Amino acid sequence: MQDAKPPIESVAPSVEPYLEPWLRGTNQDVPAVGRAVLHALQLAGEDLRKWCTSLSDASLNARPAGTAPVAFHIRHIARSLDRLLTYAEGRNLNESQLAALRKELDPGAKRDELFAELAAALADGATRVRALANANLEEPRTVGKKRLPTTVGGLLVHVADHTQRHVGQVITTAKIVTGNNQ
Q1: Which of 1, 109, 114, 115 is most buried, judging by how many CB atoms fall within 10 Å of its CB?
Q2: 29 CB-contact burial (10 Å; exposed 0-12 / middle 13-18 / buried 19+)
Q3: Which of the 8 DSSP states describes residue 117?
Q4: Rounded CA gap, 164 and 182, in Å?
């Protein structure tokens, strides 16, 4: 059953045929790698709104066949974006980020709160990606407690591919929960 809540407004353009962000000619002021990350974040926001804003709180928290719920993936997209960009900026995670990580799978997510967190994370992420876009992409960075080696460019690319991986999981789980076979 779905809650009787109006869908959150979509910002996907009403262009026929639909064009993905990377084909719209946007963000031309940003170098190619940063631009691709911005387009991936924009596409993620559009796809998540398309497939999930009409889901009820119960559907967002459902765990079909024991899989992670849609709510987990949306939280994870928002929070991992913050964590990955923190590493790209050359900083370590703070206690607030670590506490948020531990709560990503918590039950009882509310749709409006979930999408507000996502929208804020995508907007903040886009600002941070723009700030990093002109950086030396080969500049070394480390990730996690083990300080695993990567680069600014490696982290930016991972922001895009990790986000899209979880968007795919969200769409699949949302289709299972709603019985949508399209």
Answers
A1: 114
A2: exposed
A3: H
A4: 19
In our burial notation (b when 16+ CB lie closer than 10 A, e otherwise), range 34-46 reads bbbbbbbbbbbbb
pLDDT of the residue at 10: 43
Instruction: Judge contact between 169 and 175, C-beta under 8 A.
Output: no
Q: Which residue has the tokens 């795919």?
A: 168
CA dist., res. 127 & res. 72, Å (int):
24
| pLDDT > 50? residue 8 | no
Q: Where are the alpha helices (DSSP H) in the chain?
A: 32-52, 57-61, 70-88, 95-102, 111-132, 152-178
Contact 57, 67 (CB under 8 A): no
* Residue 96, C-beta contacts closer than 8 angstroms, at least 6 positions apart: none
Q: Which CATH superfamily is domain 31-178 in?
A: dinb family like domain (1.20.120.450)
CA–CA gap between residue 12 and residue 50 (Å, rounded): 9
Domain layout of the chain by residue ranges = 31-178
